[in-house]
Write a structure and sequence with these properties.
This protein is an all-alpha fold and about 160 residues long. The chain has a domain of about 110 residues. About 75% of the residues lie in helices and about 0% in strands. It is built from six helices and no strands. Helix 1 runs antiparallel to helix 6. The two termini are about 20 Å apart.
């Protein structure tokens, strides 16, 4: 059955296309004060660091929750309770979403750090496709965690 694997990928791709179509062409400023710098005011290099720290902390939290959830689902899967045997057949759905949470989170962190490093050296290098990709990975990470928990609870409560 390919749907459990394809669903997080389709959602992520859909978010990427949606963000790509909703944003304007050109390059984007990662440092908030760079927009003011274009008007002749002081350069804003380094003003993204507090935001970057917040993004990293949130991503680490979500990756930790996703990883712990993978472990919890694995433990649940190997239980031999007769009352929960109905759920073991459908447990792959939330497991795939928890794995997608971790993959999207690691990709989000890695790409954000890499693109910010590139941006610091070449400010016009952070373009619309990169912006759309990083934004869609961040939202896909959060979406996958929420869907994974929703499916897990639904499977447990509905025999």
């Amino acid at each position: 059955m390919i749907w459990p694997i394809a669903t997080p990928l389709i959602v992520s791709l859909g978010l990427y296309v949606l963000v790509l179509l909703a944003t304007s062409r050109g390059s984007y400023a990662l440092d908030p004060k760079d927009a003011a710098a274009e008007k002749g005011q002081e350069r804003g290099r380094g003003t993204f660091e507090p935001h970057n720290k917040n993004y990293m902390e949130l991503a680490k939290l979500v990756i930790g929750l996703g990883s712990a959830s993978i472990g919890a689902v694995a433990i649940f899967f190997f239980r031999s309770d007769a009352a929960l045997s109905h759920a073991q057949q459908r447990i792959g759905w939330p497991l795939i979403f928890f794995v997608a949470t971790v993959v999207y989170g690691v990709a989000f962190i890695g790409l954000l750090v890499w693109r910010y490093e590139k941006y610091c050296h070449r400010p016009n290098s952070y373009t619309r496709p990169w912006y759309a990709l990083i934004l869609s990975l961040g939202w896909s990470m959060l979406f996958s965690l929420c869907v994974g928990y929703s499916l897990f609870v639904w499977i447990i409560l509905h025999p």
